[in-house]
Amino acid sequence: MLSMFIPVGIISGILFAITLLLILADRLLVSYGECKILFKTEDDEKEFTVHGGTTLLSALITNNIKISAPCGGRGSCGYCKVQLASGGGSMLPTEEIFISKEEEEAGTRLACQVKVKEDLEIFIPDLITSVKSMVKNKSFDTSLDWKFILKNEPDIIFEDKKPEKLKKKDKEIVEDIVSRYSNTAGPMMPILQEINEHYKYLPEPVLKSVAEQTDTPLSKVYRIATFYNAFSLKPRGKYQVSICTGTACHVKGSADILAAFEEELNIKSGETTEDMHFTLDAVRCIGCCGLAPVLTINEDVHGLLTVKKVKEIIDIYRGK
Amino acid sequence: MQKIFLIFVAAIFTQNVALYYLLGMCPFVSLARSLKTAFGMGIAVIFVIFLTAAVNWPIYHLILKPNHAEILKYIVFIIVIAASVQLVEMIMERFFPALQASFGIFLPLITVNCTVLFVSLQVISTDLKYLQTVVYALGAAIGFWLAIVIVAAIYEKLELIGDVPRGLKGPGIIMITTGILALSFMGFSGMF
Known about the structure:
Number of strands of chain A: 11
Helix content of chain A: 25-40%
Mean pLDDT of chain B: 87
Largest sheet of chain A: 5 strands, mixed
Oligomer: heterodimer
Shape of chain A: extended
């Protein structure tokens, strides 16, 4: 009878010992001791110590520093941007989509993705207070577009131009297009496609006019305009470079091709060069896997790409 | 002493785990496509097999055997392998981050490589002493490393020549290469 329990005892004992060992190792090895975090805002400076091994975001929250992180630290909202002056290691692939090139150069990271392993020196621009003080001074013009940029000197940048007004010519174009689809069921897609063809993108005032003339809420127009990859709300370059990142192309190394383009044009995927010449986009399968890795520039297809060929291809279109 | 040397050589050549027992073929076939990954994987295998055999032998002989609980060896060995790989990862992340970065994904992947369990079971079933166990484990692991590196090198050469029939590209030609290599390794058995 007793012999029945011996194997049970042994296996529980071994499991217990191994669990204990792993917990101990976790305690001793994964924790990085006390790490100092020097924390600065525009007019404040604080220093505190935390146990290493946690994320920077949770370290900040436990020390009562307010930082907006609507997604709760999963790295999906991209709001918890901080600037690291020292420490923190290199950027993770999960952060890349949220951080633009100029922010990257200034050392911007997402707090939820940074693990505290050493002493850190961080800077968090206080967006809410600076907007509040500007509103108090009446220097905040709400009719202007504004954006918040984390450069070396973080600041609120007002864009000079007022929102665009609809020109008379544009209005006629929209009227013409809308009238042609007045008897069609579900006319929004073809209307937007024609506008996209005409302007190469969907300008804001034109969309407003479309909403008015088709008697559709603007939100609905916006919903369609932002859903499809073929539409863009931002002006696009003369040459639309679409790099296929579908399965076949991915296997054949399209990620390297994309990186080569990003380097050569000095933009990230989804952006447009300053001279409005190239727009770079990573798209899903464009249906010629036989030529993988493949890309299209406007209507031209370039297949069997290598990183070496990238510069040649760009030079062809730069010359035009 | 001579016996230990014989065990070592036999584990590498005549009873090579990959080419004689044909074990661990899944990672073998999928990783033998580039010399660099094959090399990294092989080194990680040497590391893990050596470590787990050295830990599992005393557990069997000091705990399981005296209590007549030999039947538990499979489950206990698997647990020990998984835990020790975890432990090694933690230690490496802390003290040798560069080494860990070079191993990358291979280390946790090897936990489920059947070669690792095989070596631990083999030393039990052939009643080796502790020193012999350690030497055998080292030999078997080096044998696996040798086999995967040779096959990967041959595969890279074949890629360069490029006249592999289309239907045999990838796993097909690797299996054929492995088979021919296994035949040639059989020749070693006449040496001793």
